[in-house]
Amino acid sequence: MKARDDLSPGGHAAGGAVAAPERVRSEGARVVRAGFIPLVDASVLIAAAEFGFAAREGIALDLVRDVSWANVRDRLAFRQFDVAHMLSPMPVAAALGLGSNPSPTITPFSLGRGGNAITLSTRLYARMQAEADLAGGETALANAEALAKVIVRMKRDGEALPTFGMTYPFSSHNYELRYWLAAGGIDPDTDVRLIVVPPPLTSDALAAGAIDGFCVGAPWNMVASERGVGRIVAAKQDLWPSAPEKVMATRPEWADSHPETLSRLIVALDAAARWCDQPENRDALADALADARYVAAPVDIIRRVLRGEFTVDPQGSQRVIDNYFIFHNNLANYPRPSKALWIYSQMIRWGQIGHSAEGERLASSAYRPDLYRAALGPLPDPADDRRIEGAVAGDTFIDGHVFDPSGIPAYVAGFPIRVADAAPLSRDDI
Amino acid sequence: MSAKPLSILVIDENHIRASIIETGLREAGHEHVTVLHEIVGLARQIEVIVPDVIVIDIENPNRDMMEHLFQLTRAVSRPIAMFVDRSDTASIEAAVEAGVSAYIVDGLKKERVKPILDMAVSRFNAFSRLQRELADAKSALEERKIIERAKGILMQMRQISEEEAFTMLRQTAMNEKKKLTDIAQSVVTAAGLLMR
User: Considering the domain boundaries, does residue A14 fall inside one?
Assistant: First the structure.
C-alpha cells in the first residue's frame, strides 16, 4: 500500500508528482467522466472541476451534462460515465433490482444535504388559507394539515384531486413529498396523484396548471416563487434535516479497477465540498453554477438559494433557512449505511418492495463507507454506521418518528399511512 | 417464424427523425408502428397500443416520467430498459452513442428485437450525419455571403476591383494568422459601426 502514503491530506502534494506516472500506466489515463443533472446540488462536482481541486489530485474531471436520471443511470451502467451525480436512492434501488435497468451501483461519497423544497401553486395555497386560516408563517406540518382539509373538501365536492410533480420513482423528492403529505394525514397514493416532471419544467408546468405542486431541488422552487406562480410550503430541513440528498455514484467494477483514481477523486471532492461550505466562496460558486454549461439559471437566484434566503410567495415574504445547503460540515459527505436503510424503509412503506433480511443487506451494501475511509482516514467510527436516526434534538423527523435500522418492519408498521401489503422481494422483478 | 407481429412505439420530438425511423421499420416489414411526438397522454397511449418495444431518443427529459409509469402500472408488462443482451456491449455502446434508447417487454427473443434496435441506431446516426452536413453547408454558405459583403464594402470604399478586394482580405488574413471569414466579418462589423 505504498501509494496510500501520498494520499493522506497534506502529504500528497510532494509525493504525487513522483508516483503519478506509474499509476497512469496501471490505471489508464486519469480522465474521469462524470455525468450530472443541472442542479445546485451538483456543486461539489462542479467546484472540483472548476476551482482546481480535481486537477490538484491529478484528475481531469470531465463533467457531462445530462437530461434525465434514467440516462445518467444507463450511461453509468454502459461505461459512458465513470462516476455520476445521482439521487441517493438510485444505488439502493439498483442493489435491490428495482427500476428498469438495475445495474451494480455504489456510492462512496455523498454530495451534501439539503436543497429540496415543496412548492404549491398559489391557487391551491389560497384555498388552504381559506380553509385553515393560514397567516403565511405556518410550519411545514401545519401546511400539510391545511392541505389535508382542502382535499377533504375537494372529495366531498367531487372535484379533481391535486396532481403533484416529483423527479423520479427512486428519488429523495418522491419519498420527501410522500413523507410530508402523509405527516399531514394525506395518502399520497389515493388522495393525490403523483407524476414525474423534469425539474427545469416544473415552474412552467405549475404556471400552466398541469400540476398543483411539486417537490424538487434548487433552484427550481425559488424560480417558481419568483415568477409568482408558486408558494414554498416546506423545505427539506423541515422534514428531516440530515436526510440524504445526492451522491457520487460509480460502478463497483470501476472502483475495483481504479482504486487510486477513486481515492484521489474522493480527496478532491472532499476538498471541494469543504470549499463550497465557506460563506466567502459562495459568490464564486454561484457564478460558476449559473454558467450555461452547468445549471444555467439566473445568478442572483442561485446566490440566494445558496444562502437559504427564500422568497416564499409572490408577495415577497422572506424566509431564511439556516444551512439550506450543507456540502461538507457535520459529515455530510459520509455515505452512512443507516441512510441507505432509511431509504429502503421508505421503499417498503410505499410498496416498491417488501422487507427481507436479504433486502436489508443489499440496500446497505450500496453505500460504501469503507471506500470513503480508505481515502480520507479512519473516521467516522464504523460502529455508528447503523445508528438510530432522527433522535437528536435539531435533527428530528417532521412527524416525530425515530428510525432504528435494526427494526425496519416495526418502523414501517408505525406509520398510519403506508401501502398495506408491499410486494415481497423477488429477484425476478429485475 | 409465425410469431405475432411486434407492436412498436417510437417516441421522438423530432418529427423528421421519427419518420425516418418509422419508414425504416415499415420497410423491414413491421406494420404495427406508432409514432408519438409528445409525451402528453403517453400513459393512455401505452395502455391502448400495448407496445412490445418502445424506442425513445435519450435527449428526451421525459424518460424519467416513463420510468415512473413503468413503476406504477403494469400497462407495459415488465418493461426493461435499453438492451436485449447485456453481453452485447458493442451494440449497447453504439446505441448510447447514437442517442437512442429502448424499452423492451421482458421475454421477447433477442433475435426479434436486435434488428429493430440496430435499424434505429443506424437511422439515428444517418440523421445526425444529415444534420451535420446541413449545418456545414449552411455555415459554408454564410461564410461565402460574408466574404462577398466584405469585398463589396472594400470595393466601394477604396474604389478597387473585386479581385483586389479579395487579395486584400486574403493578405490580411495571412498576416494576422486568422481565417478569411474572420477578417471579412470584422470588415463587415467595422463598416456597420463606421458608416452612417
Answer: yes
- For B17, the domain range is 7-132
Total number of domains in chain A: 1
Q: Does A190 touch chain B (CB under 8 A)?
A: no
B122 and B149 part of one domain: no
Torsion, Cα B64 B67 B72 B77, to 10 degrees, reads 150
**Total number of domains constituting chain B:** 2
H/E segment holding residue A214: strand A213-216
**A148 found inside a domain:** no
Which set of grid coordinates corresponds to residue B92? 449497447
Position A69 scores a pLDDT of 94
How far, rounded to the nearest angstrom, does the alpha carbon of residue B27 sit from its chain's CA centroid? Answer: 21
Taking any CB pair shorter than 8 Å as contact, residues of chain B touching chain A are 58-72, 79-82, 89, 92-93, 96, 101, 103
Q: Is B102 within a domain?
A: yes
CA distance A165 to chain B (A): 10
Residue B167's CATH number? 1.10.10.10
- The neighbour count for residue A47, using CB atoms within 10 Å, is 26
CA nearest to B30, candidates B39, B21, B38: B21
Contacts of B58 in chain A (CB under 8 A): 67-68, 71, 74
Task: Tell whether B39 and B80 lie within a shared domain.
Answer: yes
Q: Which of B59, B81, B92 lies nearest to residue A70, judging by beta carbons?
A: B81
Is B124 in the same domain as B145? no
Give domain status of residue B2, yes or no. Answer: no
Q: Tell me whether residues B81 and A75 touch, CB distance under 8 A.
A: no
Contacts of A195 in chain B (CB under 8 A): 65, 68
| Domain range enclosing A396 | 2-114+243-286+328-403
Asked if omega into B79 is within 30° of 0 (cis), the reply is no
Averaged pLDDT, groups of 10, chain A, 430 residues long: 38 38 54 96 97 96 94 90 98 93 94 94 96 91 97 96 95 97 97 91 92 94 91 95 96 96 97 97 97 93 92 82 92 96 97 94 97 92 92 94 96 93 46
Does B58 share its domain with B120?
Answer: yes
Reported ipTM:
0.80
| Model confidence, pTM | 0.82
